[in-house]
Amino acid sequence: MSDKFFFKGRKTPKPKHESYGYNTKRAAKPGTEALPLQLIVADEARKLEVAAIVAEHQLFANIEVNADVAEDIVELEGLLNKPKTTTFEKKPNRNEPCVCGSGQKFKKCCGK
Description:
- This protein is of the alpha+beta class and 112 residues long.
- 21% of the residues lie in helices and 9% in strands.
- It has helices at 3-6, 44-56, 74-80, and strands at 37-41, 61-65.
- Strands 1-2 form a two-stranded parallel ribbon.
- Strand 1, helix 2 and strand 2 form a beta-alpha-beta unit.
- The radius of gyration is 29 Å and the shape is flat.
- The N and C termini lie far apart (74 Å).
């Protein structure tokens, strides 16, 4: 026979951690102490420039000087040049005064 007739009590389901606010798939942000940026520069002068930029933005990086390899600071540039969210001005409603200053409602002036 099935459990339906003989089971006394309540079966508790496996807890869903996502619903309780626990982030089970947490990843470290690049540029922090846990995941520093890996940068390669050509000479010591350039290393000092890049180190100043990293310190200015309060990031962490491992800067390696290697003249044989091309400069690789793509991770740093990616963090500093994040795309900005575009925002638009709110379009006036039909019954609001017109933005051109005529004193008429928007629907009778510029909203034709």
